[in-house]
């Protein structure tokens, strides 16, 4: 392979690659019946999938009771379903609800559910036929301390009662599996009825599999299911497949030999939340509205995230007919935690206890793949090892000692030694899952991705981070050095897809059919690449990364990721093949030499990766780095990785002999960056405050000078004051240019204008507005016309002076 070329015979479309990849039928009759079902579904204009997912069908269903508010506020482990597309007037009919099923290990089991208060009914239009109906059901009382829950759940087709489940004597807050064969009559009506006086029913992951489809799975090759294995804090340089000379991760190293193997991959976040959100959505976390500063997800961040179309892996696989499940120790995929979000998984199994969690999660993953082997699924399997506290089982430490020479082992500090034990433990647990897949005969046709959400900082020469997580340099989230953002990343393809790529492997391909992707790459490519291999990329999707499957299939040169952007806590970096540029936000430039103190200010860092691959010599403050620093800054601004709200300020032209202007601004959303001319002196005393000074002489100019401040968060409020020659003068705000004689605090909606206000450039008074471009403040045509009318009224009242 020459610089990314993949030399293969032309990719030919087969029945295994052109149809949905799990949809492979050997028996002619079941195949034909399934096609007929699909045609009927299309005619029904409800975007029918396999299976019929009743949560996704809710928007087309009739409900007896529209539920617009939380009817059970005492049970805080729930949130309105965010991915079903219901209007606000019905938003709680779909609820992601969590039951704490094991308090010793904080086992929280969440299901995307239909919510039934007493007397609720839902009616769906379903094509006639036989279906396997599967669900998990759970109950809560109307009050927190209600001891008994009961009721009768009835399933009708038209007026024909199909099933009746008497749930008297059920235990609260427990999921119970149900499975029935249902015959939907000729009118295609499915009606679900809950009869109860005081109990609330949740019908979780309600799915209807056409019986013909189930039969076809049993008689055909297994569906191409997908397992995304995410290893928390996985440094790639301890993998044998990435050059570590000792066999600490033998299972994953063997898998890498059979995979599409990315030689130099990087995460787009240096801690879990921004990294995982970015690769699930193939978009930077801040561009999703989530930011990167801290754990919590604020209400305004949720508003931005849920208020816009967002494709993510769980949602895309689910809409393509896959059962979606996450098995994890990760609070960032649970909305009720106030730190996470609902990505739309059918089923979320979350263990919150460290150390003991790994075996519990693996056991559940093995149980899941055994129970689901005949249906297509997408499993996100997220192990919290080798994340600190680095507490491997003794047998794994012994195994590491047996393969790592003593003189090498004791060159590592104690946390690194234990980290190696955790890596071996993680590999051993993944080996148990792989063995289960092989035993059931599904390993060959399962697409498996292995990656990490970020690396881990170990090097002593990088010991100048914030230290406010682990109080030690052994951790992550505070720096952007390669050891903290370089991760493993490879994709084991289903055997049928691998074989369809042809036998003419390139010279860079290894044994076992490994396909190597040279050069730097990022996890932004993960979602579009695996969906591309399965022909599941949605049309006009929001995924921003590269679909490497396209170049691999066609043997074209793979696109280059020339700039890899990574987010951290109030910091960011850009990596090229030649340099690493690290930038901290204004007000967040003080770092520490040691955990004990010694303040050290470092707004920027710059490393020449060709000469200094270990990133030891920061070139940003020294003369010999000036030229490369200017290049890096220019690249960073040109690429414009993050979208931001812009606070736009007009400084009017000078009408006196000499004007000394002073502007003071406090920004609620914190300061990210600014655009000002050389004539303006700007200083920032903290993350939220800015002072500007300008001296100018009288001019005939009619247009003022604009200053643009970009904000970290999509909050709109600000405090603003302006003086000219020592005298405070009135300021105009927002779309209407409302005039205030003195500064006012907490300007929010008043300050917003989605477009430049009329008269802004030529105003004789200072004018400030927030364009709200990122927050999403688009006006309808009706609102715009109303705005014109409001402006006229405000003019007559004397609030606006033209």
TrEMBL record:
Every Sulfatase N-terminal domain range: 226-535
Coiled coil: none
InterPro entries: Alkaline_phosphatase_core_sf, GAG_Ulvan_Degrading_Sulfatases, Sulfatase_N
CDD domains per the UniProt record, alphabetical: sulfatase_like
Pfam families xrefs: Sulfatase (PF00884)
Protein name as catalogued: Sulfatase
